[in-house]
Amino acid sequence: EAQVTQNPRYLITVTGKKLTVTCSQNMNHEYMSWYRQDPGLGLRQIYYSMNVEVTDKGDVPEGYKVSRKEKRNFPLILESPSPNQTSLYFCASSLDATYEQYFGPGTRLTVT
Amino acid sequence: KQEVTQIPAALSVPEGENLVLNCSFTDSAIYNLQWFRQDPGKGLTSLLLIQSSQREQTSGRLNASLDKSSGRSTLYIAASQPGDSATYLCAALLTSGSARQLTFGSGTQLTVLP
C-alpha cells in the first residue's frame, strides 16, 4: 500500500531534549516536505527536499533541522525543543513538488 | 509573500444541498492549486489539483475551478452528504527557480447535517 508513515504519532517531551520525528514513504517520491499545523495559523511549511541531499527552508525553519540521506526518509530534528514548537506536524511526499501531495497521519508534539 | 485565504471558516448545511467553498490567493503567478480534505485527527487527503493552465477539474461530486487573474479558486460540492463533513483546505504552489513554496489556507470546516 502506497503510504507516508510518521513516528512517533504522539510525543510529550521537555524543553531542550533533542528529538527526531521520522518520515518514510514507499512511493519512490523525489519531493518530501514537513509542515506544522497550529490553530488559527493553518499549515506552514518548515523544510522541503527536492531529492537526496537537496533540502531548502520553508516559511518557518527556525529551530528545526532536516536531512535527506536516502530517497525514502526525511527526518525532522529538533535539537533543543521549546514550548512554542508544540504543534501537529505533517510529513508529505510527491513525485515532484508540482504533483499531488500525499500526507502522513501526523505527529502531535507537546513540549513542556 | 503568498497569502491564501479561505472564507468562511465554518459552514453548516443540510444534507442534499449544493455548496461552494472559496479560496483566494494574493500572488497570481501560481503553478497549481490543490484542494485537500482533513478529517479530525487525521492527515490531509488530496481531492483535486488544478494546473495554472486549467480552468477546472472534476472528480465525482466535486468540481474545482481556478481563475488566476482574479486570484480565486472555488470547490463545488454537489448533493452534499454527512460523510462530506470535514475541513477543506486549499494550497497554492509558487515556483521560482528551484524553489517550491506551497502555501495553505486556514481551511473551511464543513458540517453536513442529516
Describe the structure.
The complex is a heterodimer of chains A (112) and B (114). In chain A, strands 2, 4, 5, 6, 9, 10 and 11 form a seven-stranded mixed beta sheet that branches. Chain A has strands at residues 4-7, 10-13, 19-25, 31-38, 42-51, 54-57, 65-66, 76-78, 87-94, 102-103, 107-111. In chain A, 0% of the residues lie in helices and 51% in strands. The mean pLDDT of chain A is 95. With 114 residues, chain B is mainly beta. Chain B is built from no helices and eleven strands. In chain B, strands 2, 4, 5, 9, 10 and 11 form a six-stranded mixed beta sheet that branches. In chain B, strands 1-3-8-7-6 form a five-stranded antiparallel beta sheet, with no helix packed on it. The mean pLDDT of chain B is 93.
- What is the general shape of chain B? globular
State the end-to-end CA separation of chain B. 41 Å
Unreliable stretches covering 5 or more consecutive residues of chain B: none
User: What proportion of the residues of chain A form beta strands (DSSP E)?
Assistant: over 45%
Largest interface: A-B, 27 and 25 residues
User: What's the total number of strands of chain A?
Assistant: 11
Our measurement of the CA-to-CA distance between the termini of chain A, rounded to an integer number of angstroms, reads 36 Å
Class from secondary-structure proportions of chain B: mainly beta
State the oligomer: heterodimer
Order of helices and strands of chain B: EEEEEEEEEEE
Strand and helix order of chain A: EEEEEEEEEEE
Number of helices of chain B: 0
